[in-house]
Amino acid sequence: MQNQTQTVREFGLRDKIGYMFGDIGNDFFFLLAGSFLMVFYTSVLGVEPGAAGTLFLVARIVDAFTDITMGRIVDRTRPAKEGKFRPWIRRMCLPVVISGTLLFLPWISGLPMWGRMIYIYVTYILWGSFCYTAINIPYGSMASAITADPAQRGALSTFRSIGAALAGVIINVGVPLIIYRYDEAGNQIVIPMNFFALAAVFAVGALVCYLLCYRLTTERIPIQTKAGESRNFGKAVKDMASNRALLAIVAAAVMLLLAMLFAQSMNVYLFMDYFKNKNAMSVAGFLSTAATLVLAPFSGAIIKKIGKKEASAAAVLFAAGVYAVLYALRLKNPWIFCLFVMFGNLGTGLFNLLIWAFITDIIDYQEVVSGERNDGTIYAVYSFSRKLGQALAGGLGGWLLQAIGYQSSAAGETVVQTEQVLRSIYSVATIAPALCYLAVGMILLLWYPLNRQKVKENTEYLKAKRREQVR
Predict the structure, then answer these.
(1) Which of 385, 361, 388 is nearest to 375 (CA)?
(2) Which pLDDT belongs to residue 280?
(3) pTM over cut 0.85
């Protein structure tokens, strides 16, 4: 292994670009589903928002088993010639894009309601709980095998977030312009067939991105599973349950995804029904991801000068303040609302740039305190927390829409909401993110233990351990 390691290509821009493409592939469907699947269910299939929200939470119960199982499979599988994690991207890229496309079949609206419900349960769980899990967990775990250097891992996190931002720009800006049209009265209604057409285009794009990720990245850190080794799952669970850093970042991730995706999904209804302006919706979608691209060149300097924990906490607390101001102002002008969203996303954008470097720090921390390395299992726990945040955003969004009296439609027909419903949509779309971002900031400040100095100490300890193993 030592001689093999010496011939491996050095870490560089190729790895960062390849890793970026992996997240573009992931987010083509993750963001599309997070922002517009509820719209497809309620406005094309005629499913009640509460019923769709229940589906999202049921799927997360399934994920509690499939995510952890996939993490254990990854940890216990012996490395192939191209590494321990990369082979899964090659194996699962086609199933995940096919299952993602099946989420958006408009012809299902012709089935009776029980048939539509079976369809949304089968396709959503197939995509999210099985296919997406089987590619996302190895992909996320792979960062710790590409490089052991904290600064380089920070660069991988930045490029991954740039990938998510690029996918977000495409989806949040382009999708509203394509799936909506105006009727004679000036109301926005959806175009059912365009959901499927977009999903098909994104499927091709995602497949290309996954293959580029596989070809451009290289695993350098040998993470071996010895022949006949059977890791004690109970011990791994016990170690993770006592891992303060992991528990804190799981809680922060749930609240972060709840805030981000809840805001994105509610903004669809906010701009469609409250502001009645699909162009402003596209601008808001662009601004929500452009902040990540603006901050990306400075993320490395921020990590070195301030630290991931410290900078991220300040950033999300700033975002909480912006959304609290939006709630108090009760704006009627969509363009002023977009301006505030831009400032709010400068806060969340910084945390999103750094979040994946948090996970590699936690994987290292787990090895330091327990003596065992569980890349796949730890990433699976974190992946589940993100899906839980996604589900809560969809579930709570659906239940709240139903609670405030939002009326669903089928096959794109026009339904005009009451003034009280419109006011409630605005309130929910602003105060909920404010409270969630406040919670994230406090978790990072008061609970998460890995400050800049602690991360440095763990890195030095593991470097010494690797040198001793080589001897």
Answers:
(1) 361
(2) 84
(3) no
